[in-house]
Amino acid sequence: MKGVVFTEFMDMVEEVFSDDVLDEIIEKADLPNDGAYTTVGTYDHQEIVRLVVALSETSNMPLPDLLATFGKHLLGQFVKGYPQFFDEAKDAFDFLSNIDSYIHVEVLKLYPDAELPKFYHEQHSDKHLSMYYQSSRHFEDLAVGLIEGTLAHFNTEGTVSKSEAQWQGEDAIKFDIHLN
Ligand code: HEM
Hints:
The protein is of the alpha+beta class. Helices cover 54% and strands 19% of the residues. α1 (3-16) packs across α2 (19-29), α2 crosses α3 (45-59) and α4 (63-81) crosses α8.
């Protein structure tokens, strides 16, 4: 996992919780490098899992809620760092439908060692989009937050639900996004 994900996670912990909570979870997670990450480095994704689990224990907040909160924060940072991707999209569904075929493709050019998930989509109507997610890292709760952050960015109200599904014979997580 790219270091940028770690540095953004730590920023979120400082912002939403405190410096003390950050110190506490770094200690608790017992990380190989004591929590020193550079944005361009690449680290074992289990380390971010350990940090999120430690934060869940310290804050008594459920893991899925924390990952979704982090996803929303991360989306806000993507808006600042990569405004062109958002400006080019005509609405939230247009943006979300282009993650796999365009946005993550561009990300891979910037960070050739990025480990990105696969997304497939089916648009049922202008108010209902299904996205199928496949990743060995199982960050579906992070994806929920990224999708919710996307809806908020495009000033669109709606709900995101998650279920287990199959895409072309392979296990996948399905997100159903319904706009109000
Ligand atoms: C401009 C927008 C976006 C940018 C620049 C971006 C970039 C990235 C980067 C740099 C990573 C880390 C890769 C690694 O650590 O090796 C990542 C991972 C990920 N991205 Fe995106 N992303 C964007 C939008 C989204 C959106 C809207 C979603 C949700 C639908 C999404 C879903 C994910 C997930 C779930 C991961 C974690 C890795 C995994 O699940 O396997 N991304 N993305």
